[in-house]
Each structure stands twice: as structure tokens, then as C-alpha cells.
Amino acid sequence: MGALGYDKQLVARNAPSTIPTDDNHLNQLGHIWYADLTIDDFIGKAQQQDPSALFVVTGDHAERFSFKEQEDEEAIFTVPCIFYGRDVDPAWFESDGVGAHGQITPTLVELLSPTGYKYTSIYPSLLTQEEYAFNKKVWATNGDIGTFQDLADDELSFDFTDKLIAEERLRNCDGLESGQRKR
Fold first, then answer.
1. Which of 19, 120, 135, 164 could pair with 160 in a Cys bridge, judged by C-beta atoms 3.0 to 4.6 Å apart?
2. What digits encode the pLDDT tens for the residues 43-82?
């Protein structure tokens, strides 16, 4: 990676004190740097061929990478989700909004389909700016995140999985999210 411009010593000198600067951690950071470089290169070339292209960049949870001595739940459980293209308006998405990977498909349907196109989905589009999101391990609201183990017995808890929610919504068709392309 050094031949491509990744300067391990520069990163080590400028890393915050919470990130170890041993070779293993610096190499992990180098892989992330390289992924960023290649994504940028790919998007640049694709936009030259089709300026109207829409890109969705998302990732996996940080449970595999632990750079800090102690990670908080936000760093461990959140993932990036970036919709990028010349016609994407950043105002469509809240900067601290929450969502799930299952919401990417209905979002793409809304962004790519003709105006007025109607569809049905188990998950709402990310354009709806939901107040909360959850899966079998984690809950999140705009600005807060936690695990179900954090909740006391008398607090709100979700004792079902995404699969059970989907089954319930399918049984009661009125529970399905319906959308219509507005943009």
C-alpha cells in the first residue's frame, strides 16, 4: 500500500492516543484507506461514463475491527450508508438518522422508479426518516443506541426479531410499508 501513497509512519504520528500504532492496527487502517481510495476511483470513472449514475456505499459492522482500547456501542454497531449521485439531495436524509440495511431496497425503488410508482415493502424507505430502528441485538433512535441487555425489565423492549415482524406484517397486510415515488 505504501507504493500507492499510504504512509504508515504519518498515520502513526497523527493517530489519536486511543488508537494503537502497532503494525497490525496500522495495516488494518491501511486496508480501510485502500478501500476508500478504490471506491473513489471507481465512482470517478463510472461518473465519467454515466453522469446520472447513483451509488450506494454501505459497510459491515465494526465488530471485526477494534482500533480503540474500548469502543462504544455506536462505533461497534453502526455502519455507513451513503447515497451518492448528481441528483441526490443530502436534505433527503437526516445526518443522525437511523435505519437498517433492509431499507436500502425500498429507498432505491423510490429514487429510481418513475414519479407516482407504487410499491409495497416490509421495510420503509430511508427517505421516510423513521424515529427508530432495531434488529435482534441493537435498538437505535436518532441520537441514541444501545443493546437490549441495557434495558431494564420494565422498560420498552423488543423481544422479537426482524423475521417475526415481517411475518406479522405479511399476515396483516395493512402493516406493510407502502410507498410512492415522490421525487
1. 164
2. 999 999 999 999 999 987 665 566 655 567 677 777 888 9
